[in-house]
Amino acid sequence: MPMAIFLAAYLAVSLATGDFYKMPVTVAFLLASAVALAMPRGVAFRDRVMQFCRGTADGNVMLMVLIFILAGAFAQAARQSGAVDAAVDLALSVVPPNLITVGMFLAACFVSLSVGTSVGTIVALAPIATGMADGVGLSSPLMLGVMISGAMFGDNLSFISDTTIVATRTQGCSMADKFRVNFRIAVPAALLAAAAYTVAGWGSAAPVEIPPVEWVKVVPYLVVLVAAVCGMNVVLVLAAGILLCGVSGLVTGAAGLWDWTASMGEGIVGMGELIIVTLMAAGVLEMMRLYGGIEWLTCRLTSRIRSRKGAEAGISALAGLADVCTANNTIALIMTGPIAKDISTAYGIDPRRSASLIDISSCVVQGLLPYGAQLLMAAGLSGMAPMEMLPYIYYPPLLALVAAVAVLTGFPRKYASGTLTPAGGTE
Q1: CB neighbours of 26 closer than 8 A, spacing ≥ 6?
Q2: Is 420 helix (H, G, I), strand (E, B) or coil?
Q3: pLDDT tens digit sequence for 316-340
């Protein structure tokens, strides 16, 4: 019920009015939080509030908040020091204007595959995406949608992605084996998305004049990307980026000491809405978990499974719906992974296949949630509403389509060998 209230308040109102600023996402989550606190019976209101607060104080949630704070400071410091403009000039000097969109998609795919986090990819590339859009006369929501699509590619496939680690551990297979199955499903979807983005960006014009690249100003971005690819902790990566933005601004004269500190403060304040939404969503999730909402969804989804294909569809839907409720694909897989494992064992589904399907499903949903960290982060860094970008996020829906075909056809056949049904027969 709390999530239904949120979806009705935010999505329904936004779609009905055609204005995605009409209902602030913070107010929609405030309504959902009120419902979550009001529904339990037989529990003192003070205790309900404390239960809600325990959800907001979860260690993973606090880490996300810390990352959002550092990301806001880094993004604004990069703008103030000229790092964003310099990185855009570098990109425009390398990539032909007609291929800007597909170039951004492939860059986001590479970065996310290397760093294993879609949010980290968005932090690094969002300012560059909007700058490139302005440079070649493309829609900023389009370029942000391109970047989010590429970010979700690596989030689903990377060996160091949290979702990959959780999916393989809960299903009992190696990451390399899961990658082989996932790769065969993800790559066709990525190729389709690349083709679509090539068409969408065709005809974009080159800038009248591309300024010379100021390499000193590009250094913060290069260091951030290289450090992230090398596996450095995201908190350390962002802290290093903030420091280097200050140093490059002082060296080039683009920003003084107090300009640097003021820009950091401005960036942190700009993350306020994102942090508030994250905290309220975590509190609502904790109330739903505590009072049986997640368990109810699980029972409803699994009660009508009759075949192996139905089981594959069921565990995919289970992971996707859990992500709708949690707005965090890692948490969704932690919650549903053991259930998916039981269903997969009962219906003879290869663990490599079940790990791939639940990871794909959770990442598909996560990449399309207007209240998920990915779209909210991109919105916070660009000043746009999440729903403005949603029509241009092609990769997750295409991945869902390819995954559905894989379920219906048993593709790839090599990893669809399980044949036992609960009754002991064959399918």
Answers
A1: 273, 276, 277, 280
A2: strand
A3: 998 998 888 777 787 788 777 878 8
